[in-house]
Amino acid sequence: MTKLITKKRKIKLKLLFTFILLIIGIYASYKNIENKRIVINDKELTSLITADSFTYNNTNFIEKTISKLIDISNPINELNSKYQETSTIVDTTKKEGEVPLIYLYNTHQSEEYTSTTLAEYSVTPTVIMNNYILEDVFNKNGYKTIVEEESIKDILNKNNWKYYNSYKASRILLENSIVTYPTLKYFIDIHRDSLPRSKTTITINNKDYAKILFIVGLENPNYQENLSFTEKINNKLNEKYMGLCKGILKKQGRGVNGVYNQDFNNKTILIEIGGYENTPNEVLNSALAFADVFMEIINEENN
């Protein structure tokens, strides 16, 4: 009997020891991840994607994850060189900040894309990354661009407004922008779709893109001007990148906004780039395609 009790105790001690080792292993793994955790916002993520060469902060996790995610050398530089000689809208001899032409903002700033392998490093890209990609291309080509940095959430909270008042909040930013920068002419509100990946992704010439959708509110009394401008972009995008655009969704009636601040200016557009399951790589490809076409159109308009 004594031998049997001793044997049971040994088994219990062995199981306890194994359990303790397991807990120690889990804790060590957790601390290892915590030590590597680097929080990156959309602006920093975009600067990594668009940089001529990556820089690292005492770790190579960014190199590994971004290189898996972005299978490109530097498409923004290629796009910049393409337009460097033809861009004539802005007098680049003037000091930076004097003649901004394009204003980029997001009425729904919290709309996210898939974080893929970057999730464990607190990198969750949102629609805001599009702003910085486009800003980089436009500014390098002489189209001075302003990116809205103010928080829509803060405006909602200060006014005790609900989320559905987001367009009221972004209207405040639009009004402020034109007072601060009276030369602004193009206003782009960037969103993402809520449809699954199968409906928001397309492969063109062996490259994956996040599909693009435009929205025009028909309750703006002068909507036809906004619609006409949006049609130019939509048509040229599908001309150069067949199937990239899903078209123009015209909205009015009960339960929808119907205006989307497009009464602010006849060159105010609402664009959805991809959906919640699209990767930053796919979003980047589509943002570059949009920049390519948009620069062509505003070049034509101003020449």
Describe this structure in words.
There is one protein chain. The protein is an alpha/beta fold. It has a single domain (37-302), classed as Aminopeptidase, CATH 3.40.630. The chain has helices at residues 2-36, 42-50, 61-69, 75-83, 128-140, 152-158, 166-180, 197-200, 223-240, 280-302, and strands spanning 102-105, 145-147, 186-193, 201-204, 207-210, 212-217, 245-251, 268-275. The strands form 2 sheets. A 6-stranded mixed beta sheet has the order 2-1-3-8-6-7, sandwiched between helices. The longest helix is centred in the N-terminal third of the chain and has 35 residues, at 2-36. The chain is elongated, with a radius of gyration of 25 Å.
Structural class computed from helices and strand pairing? alpha/beta
State the major sheet. 6 strands, mixed
- How many domains make up the 3D coordinates? 1
Q: Count of helices?
A: 10
What share of the residues does DSSP label as strand, in percent?
5-15%
**Helix and strand pattern:** HHHHEHEHHEHEEEHEEH
CATH-scheme architecture: 3-Layer(aba) Sandwich
Q: Rounded to an integer, what's the Rg over CA atoms?
A: 25 Å
The number of strands is 8
> What oligomeric arrangement do these chains adopt?
single chain
Output mean pLDDT.
79
CATH topology heading = Aminopeptidase
Note the gap between the termini: 100 Å
Main sheet: strand order? 2-1-3-8-6-7
Shape: elongated
CATH class: Alpha Beta
| Regions with little confidence, pLDDT below 50 for 5+ residues | 33-40, 51-73, 85-97
**Percentage of residues in helical conformation:** 40-55%
